[in-house]
Amino acid sequence: MKFSKKKFAKEVLYELELARDKAVVERGMGLGKVSGEFVPGETEKKTVRDERHGKWVDIVDPTRMYVHEAWVNRGPWRGKRPNYRARGRTDIIKMPQASITIRLKEEKSRLREYEEKKAKEYRQGPWVHLPNRPVYAQRPFYSW
């Protein structure tokens, strides 16, 4: 993984590792090689289209985890402190708090979503340019 040199990049890396460990322990995600569900070299490689980013993705290990979503929320205020101004006035400075949420998924879900989308397209049938139905409100003059 490549990360920025910025200060908060270490916090993001820590949260990613924490989310990965939590997903493995609580949900059993990413354990394909250990559980025997995925055997390297025996499963075929599948290529699916990732609709969120518009790219084609090669899936070799269906139990591999990836970051599906990540977002930052503003949390409650950590505290307040006065800011003394001119002419005896004071302002209250609120110290913000933020939280990061990371949603991990396995490649199996990307495969399933791609297959569901293909099945839906197949169910809908071909697109018809002009359906065979009557045209309503035909008049020999403009109606506006």
TrEMBL record:
Which example biological process does GO assign this protein?
translation
Q: Report keywords, A-Z.
A: Coiled coil, Ribonucleoprotein, Ribosomal protein
What Pfam families would the database entry show?
Ribosomal_L22 (PF00237)
Family matches, as SUPFAM superfamilies: Ribosomal protein L22
One GO molecular function term of this record is: structural constituent of ribosome
Q: Which domain of life is it from?
A: Eukaryota
Coiled-coil zones: 97-124
Q: Name one GO cellular component term.
A: large ribosomal subunit
> What's the family?
Belongs to the universal ribosomal protein uL22 family.
Which PANTHER family does the entry mention? CHLOROPLAST 50S RIBOSOMAL PROTEIN L22-RELATED (PTHR13501), LARGE RIBOSOMAL SUBUNIT PROTEIN UL22M (PTHR13501:SF10)
Name of the molecule in the record: Uncharacterized protein
Question: Which species is the source of this protein?
Answer: Cryphonectria parasitica (strain ATCC 38755 / EP155)
